[in-house]
Automatic annotation (TrEMBL):
Membrane topology label: Multi-pass membrane protein
Stretch list, region Disordered: 1-24, 442-464
Protein name in the entry: Lysosomal dipeptide transporter MFSD1
Lineage of producing organism: Eukaryota, Metazoa, Spiralia, Lophotrochozoa, Mollusca
Protein's organism: Batillaria attramentaria
Entries under SUPFAM superfamilies matching the protein: MFS general substrate transporter (SSF103473)
Amino acid sequence: MADEREPLLRNVQEDDEEKETACGTGPCDPKGCIHRYFPVLVIMCFLSFGSYFCYDNPAALQDNMLRDLELTEGQFMLFYSLYSWPNVILCFFGGFLIDRMFGVRLGAIIFSIFVTIGQVMFSLGSLFNSFTLMCAARFVFGVGGESLAVAQNTYAVKWFKGRELNMVFGLQLSFSRVGSTVNMNVMQPLYSFIDEHVHGYRCLGIALFVGAGMCVFSLLCALLLAFLDKRADRILQRQAVAGEGEQIRLLDVRFFPLSFWLISIICVAYYVAVFPFVGLGLVFFEMKFDMSPTQANAVNSLVYIISAVASPVFGFLIDRSGKNLFWVILGVTVTLGCHALLAFTFITPYVGMIVMGLAYSVLASALWPMVALIIPQHQLGTAYGIMQAIQNLGLAVISLVAGLIVDSKGYLVLEVFFMAWLCSPTLNLSAKRRQALREAEQARDEEEKLKKEIESEKGVNKVF
């Protein structure tokens, strides 16, 4: 069992005097704020860059994969489904493994290794035209991908709790979307360049090895961050507190109110109408709007580009305005309109995808915090684990179904299918249930108001 207090590198000199004076007050001093931002925060943001870059490698090279590997759309979407299946279970245990077994440093390294091995296997599968190996690779990749994000968040809490934590979470989310955006806009030109020398599935395999290089880079970031974190523990005399993270208690499910399950339905219904669409979007934009692969990838990446910029902004605005339920309904409704626009009109797809990116940012910023309004704090770990499990189960199943729909019925029926899913949360928000959620929000607002009044009275008493 790993202990955070064990040295990461056994040959490190642990001289007490050196610990206190090694780097003064510059960027190397963990006691200063400069060190937290650079290099720690910078490296922290790159920790999952490779994972997000490679997650949508299939989407960026959709037409090439279908042609070079002779796949159907159903087989193609299996790559996304197999990523989600392990996370139906692992979302419950990723935090536990970090808190109780590995520690955040070793955990981040292990999960980075899984991501790297998965992408290397995926590249080799393409290089040797082995669909079975590529499917196994996406499963291995999924084992590490989501848990690595948990480790990244754990690092953020450890370094920035009580300081700029919300800003750091928003920055990490934005940077992960940058990884997805870079993938969407780089892989097609890279494939075209390699295709001048090597053709077919071998060209595809070489291009995918670039993604493996990104994963190796993130693995190096995990190693460097572990070294810096261990060094800071030694200098600052920090000690890990065992079990301080949220614990998963499945028996708590019986106490969850109906409004929580409604939020979970909204979550899965919304996300299955966005991410599988992005996974299949390249060929859709090529076929309907007569775009080149590079143009289609640029349009397809707009959801990620917009959310990278807009998510922190909308999060700040929603924090100030409240009314999470209103913003959730707005996000679902606007996304429904975007799918209708893309399905039934020939208006430039830039409009639909930009607005969809804004709507996605609104919903993501408003939906997840709603759980904290209705679930006690000691049960939040269980609640978020269940939501993530339901979300990944939905993505695993709907990804396969979406591919089969395209094979048998085409993209128009697929868009109607996604619109039906987006209607589901809207229809389920009956007046009675909306009122229940509003009452929960109002109760939370009154509780926070009461706390502020008590703190204010304490402040007055201290003065006198």
